[in-house]
Structures
1.
Amino acid sequence: MSPSVLICDDSNMARKQVLRSLPEQWKDNVQTATNGAEALTILRNNEIEILFLDLTMPGIDGIGVLQGIKKLNITCNVFVISADIQPEMQAKVKALGAKEFIRKPVKQDVLFNNLQQHNLL
Amino acid sequence: MNEFHLTEDQQDCLQELINIAMGQASDQLARYLNTFVYLKVPSIESVDAKNLMETLSQQKNTLAVISQGFFGYEGIRGEALLVYQEEDSGRIADLLGYEPDELSQDEQLIDISSILTTTFLNVFARQIDNQMSYNAPKLLPNVKDKLSEHLQQMPFSWDLALKVNINYQVTDYSFNCNMVLLIPETAIINIKNVLDRILAEF
Amino acid sequence: MLDINALISPENKTPSALSEQNLTQINNQIANQLNTGILVLDAEYNIVMWNRFLQVHTDKVANNIIGQSIFIAFPEVPERWLSRKLDSVLQLNTPSFCSWQQRHHLFELPHTRPITTDSEFMAQNCTFLPIETDGIVKNICILIEDVTDVCHYQTQLQKTLDELATISRIDGLTQIYNRRHWQGSLEQEYAKAQRHDKRLSLIMLDLDYFKLLNDNYGHQCGDMVLIEVSALISSLLRVEDIFGRYGGEEFAIILPETELSGAMELAQRICSSIATKPLTYKDHKIKVTVSLGVAQLSAEESNYEMLITQSDSALYQAKAQGRNQVCCADFSTSKPID
């Protein structure tokens, strides 16, 4: 069973980078969003198990999405993937409910490790 | 002209590389400065020569421009300009952790500029398997009237400029400066090749 | 900029690759023959290597230097500042720079030029490079370039430019501002006064019977009078007043933030000071007087030239009324001259 996945990043390349790093059998069940508002719409209307979330995006950013998920009581495993790697930011997203913080550029082994830690792989 | 313009994919790829470089650079800076420096992921625009002159001349109260040349393998080279506004100058000494009388304002500006430019470009270069060397940074004299003159008198004719707006937020204040990367024709073609190589991996 | 990494990089191996040992010999010899100082520090800022350039330019003994802290070996360097700089090189793995333009020199090395400069020490451009061994930055290479010549010529050039800038503002004979600079200043002061709604007054003055003086005693006497009168007037002014030679024997004073009564008072003082100042030229007692016209900026003027016209016509009136006196522009009745 492959989980339903949402990748939210305003950069096309970054979305592809995450997609490429996913387990092969997951790739048929992946949706993408280019901004926070789009992601929240998808999250509301679909059951998404895993969200890979960028922080810096136009409009509703990653922090906004995390706050939205809390407010709307959506259950979802959120992995933040960001270039903004300062410790304060990592602490902030974890406090808002993100499972892990992954540095950009994302690498497959790092991604797998993180998924395993939460028994998602 | 058009051959220097980046395609949408190339632009996206470059933006992502710059975001990552700026993110890592700001993390390194925060550790070095031993304070919570929060660097917003910058906005990037690519501008041609004429537009750059117009944008820069619109900026009021430009206090100082620091220029520093960089060069790496595969013909990737250019010049970084750090443009500061008047109201932000006094805060730099605080940021660097210097005592006010230890060094002149000029030296503070040169120091912070050099740290910003080299930290950022080092990370950027590493991502594209390159390595940078740098010229000594220079304060451009009397920038108010001379910036356009300087841009015309570059050792190379540059065809593309990347304007990266950097915004620092330190616990109780923030300051802005613009980093402008001026890149000559041959280097653009090389950068485009590198970007295509990265894009081909996906 | 010299890049030591490029010199010693193993990537530079040619097809006829040199042995490791030969390469080291070549690198050592280059380092020792360079006209640039090389100083290598470890992560605790102790000196681990220096080249011949530094050895011959200091009188320190090589054996004592190696292993010593840079701050002990070179007590002249500012410790706090340099530590901070070296920290950035190690922590950020980036080069750092120090130019003679901000700091004339870091190390007190005597210069070898037969030129007299402000400093007895060599002007320097210093570069601080992170040196990676096994992928970790453990050392810092300091390159010290001698830029005494550049510094010397640049300083001379700046001095000359400053002199030229002064000459272009100053009247050669009287050493007060020339007309061009004075008029530029008036334009600025006029704009400032208009913008901030401040007062501004103007005095124009002219030596009486100056042509006669020249005819009777010669032009050298006329020059002497111009110099003496300029000096006397200068001594009566505030720092912010702008005094210039407007024409041959005509002078003008801009009085920022001064109203008409203040300007009139000053004009009277100038008038009587000159009239009572005894001047002698080749045993001749010379009596000099001036006529003065005063005007104040009012709502009527739409450009600074009109202010000159106002005080000029007041000066004309002072002349017509018998000279050696002050007149003020009565702007309620006076009309601008077309």
2.
Amino acid sequence: MDDAIPATGLNWRRASIAGAVALPIIALLAFGMTRDPGEITSPLPGKMAPDFALEVFAQGEPGQERMVGDTVRLSEMRGQVVVLNFWGSWCLECRREHQALTNVASEYATKGVKFFGVLYNDQPSTALRWIQEMGGQSYPSVNDPRTRTSIDYGIYGAPETFFIAKNGVVAYKHIGALTEAIMIQKLDSLIAAPSS
Amino acid sequence: MTAVMVTTSAMGQSVTGATVAVDTVLDRRTREVASELRCPVCQGLSIADSPSELAQEMKGLVREQLASGKSPEQVRAYFIDKYGEWVLLAPKPEGFNLLVYLLPAALVMGGGWFVWRYVRRHTDTPAEQV
Amino acid sequence: MTRLIGANALIVALGVTVVGLLLVTFGARRQRAEWVEAGYSATYLQFALVTAATFAMIFGLVSHDFSIDYVAQVGSRATPLYYTVISLWGALEGSILFWGWVLSLLTALVVFWNRDRGGKLIPYTTATLLGVGIFFQILLVGPAHPFGLVSPVPLDGPGPNPLLQNHWLMGIHPPLLYLGYVGMTVPFAFAMGAMAAGEVGDTGWIRLSRRWLLGAWAFLTAAIIAGMWWSYEVLGWGGYWAWDPVENASFMPWLTATAFLHSVMVQERRGLLKLWNLNLIVATFVLTILGTFLTRSGVLTSVHAFTEGNIGYYFLVAIAIVLLLSFVLVAGNSEKLTSDGQLEGTASRGSVFLLNNLFLTAFTFTVLVGTLFPLVAEAVRGVKVSVGEPFFNRMTVPICVALLFLMGVGPALPWKAADRATIRRKLLPPAIGSGVALLVALFAGTRDVFALLAFMFAAFALVANVGEFVEGARLRMQQRGESAPLALSELVNANRRRYGGYVAHLGVVAVAAAITAASTFKTEYEGTIKKGESLKIGENMAVRLDEVWGREEPQRAVIGTTLTLLKNGREIATLDPRMNFYPTSQQPVPTPAVRSRPTGDIYVNLQAFQQDGSNATLRVIVEPLVPWIWLGGMIICCGALISMLPVPGAARVRAAARAESAERAPGATTPVTAS
């Protein structure tokens, strides 16, 4: 597009004004490149985590274990750090983070951190098969059959993970696959914080 | 195969009769509110339009909340609380957002004035003769 | 082997394009005709090479050559052949390749049809086209290289995006869209060429541009309508337009191109609006590039398949160059485009065209502001906001209503200043028509003010445009004693451009009336019913659930329902809405069942089902007049086609002299600007 412009005949004053008009548009588009439209900042961090009462369908392993059929209520876990991982067997990113979650959950069981999977947009039967296929899940998963808890947490995809402080406030929301490093960093600072 | 299944007692009403009709005042109010809320898993569709499961559930929730006596404004507030301003498909006309409403209006008015002047300037016969 | 042919063809094509660009540019500057000729030949060679690469890709897809990374990305042995071929544009790299191919084709055609013209216009136009071509070819050898080697070679691939292999329209919509989009590059290239050649004040380039733009506009129109239809048939929500950034991106250049098709007549007849028309041509192209940038770079929509890599930055650089260059050139040349002509009256067709341009520009601006506002809000406030359907409907419906009104007034008014008697005579029948429409709409229960206005003005425009045909044909029948059908066809033949335009207007009326009716009288019914039960629809209709069934296909699993549509208890049709489960997709892809009649559609989507097949959740949407949207789109394209047909050669020159008499006796002669 480097046409030869005749040296004469261009009104440079008008041309430079027009060029100056183009710059903010370009700047706006360049700014857009730095943003991810899929990442919607959640209003939840800093607010009390919404309470829920959901039924366990996968019991997890000793340390985090809950009986199948038990009803888990967030309000019962005040004073403890809670990690809520919204997932589904259809979700590819969930496969990527699965091992990291399972590892950290069993490691932090002794430090009083509770992990729960919340099944989003999926069937417990399919989810159980998935867990088996993935070699187990060290923490219990609860079912959210009408996605009301998911809506309460402002979920728009999976995986999304909430780190809830001892006082019941959402400390951090992670979108997409988690890594062990991120979890350890967040959890250590939450455990260290006073529980009031 | 993942069979996605909804048993929507909220949406579907009871199905004992031979024929089920679903179009009530509450449905219309639900639709009004739901058509202003953005479906989180779609590309720009409202939860009223989206056939996705999450949108269906959200619509059901809108319906429940309206049925329990909440005002449309309160229902919107609930969703803004959970999803942020992003969930509104038309930005609230206040503060900075006014820009998106006023700029087009300003263009129409400014352009209209310009066209009027242009026609006056480039017309042989003055407008009064018509 | 296929991979190497494709990869090397693209590399050589880039070299040839660069050389061609240098040859035509310097050949024109130094007045070396043989350089320019060599540059022209390079455009043919470029076309041949990109064609070779495109065919290599199609061959690779069809032969399941998974060593090619694009094939490994979108191909699958289980995919039916049709969808394998059209997956050429199913993902980023392939769509850029196809884009590049269309561009190289159009470049070669521009050269082929115009190479005998003297002067610098065509060399510089070719240079611009090759410059744009270089951009796409850089993408093709760089960030969007489709012929990368996959090692080890996979045995099978995941197949195309499920949404793109679920309906035959996906084979139609993208090629039309690319032809429309890429076609808009050609008028832009003429504009840039004219500015570079110092001929921007002449009429030669604007006539060439007009024809190309009209052609591209017809393709874009067809593409937009086909896209709406696809969305209606595949997405399962019963709508056809969601004001999604991708849709807006295709709509904005359509609006500016539409504005140009009208305002260029003011320039041709009255010598006005020269600078404005140049602006519209440039804006149309810039909007196509902006739209591509917005949708392909992941700035506004997060379509994951299309955001990988850093291709967005290439687009950003390209759009910066295009914006700066075109703004600077247009503003720098603006002095040469003083308008010397005069309109002939305030109440004349010329004024209506100005208003039409005002509203089309306002429309474009509203869509642009709405599309970009989320970015602006995030930059300024740091908050993500959405701008969607409720906003766009609220803002643009009044503009649409105004445009419909003008579409009736314009054809009725003459170019010359109209006296009151003429205006009255011309506008009375349309006014009666709109009165009737108002009564009918009120009687049918319309209460929304804008819907009433839309029905009124649609009727107004309908009567006014049909009136032009009637009046012209009647005049011929009186003056020449022709029979009615002959008079009508001769009338259109004698002035194809004008009457083609009116045909397009009739198509727009159909689309506008259908959309208004569909959104005003749309009714929805939703319910979960057991086998044997029925869901009541309106007063006298119902759908009965007969069966829930499942079927395994090579590339997907299908769950469907068999429904019977009942009217007054009588069985009138069988419907089978389905859900398709693809292994690569978390969400099922619906196939709604649509029963179409001229009066409207019954649209049934399967929302959910019980796994044991005992019940299903259905959503039934009754949408009046929807088929008229698709039909109207076809009518618009027919109108464009009529306008594009060449005027019988000999008449052209003589016609110029008799332009004025054409005004008095419509269709009696060919008007001035029938090129």
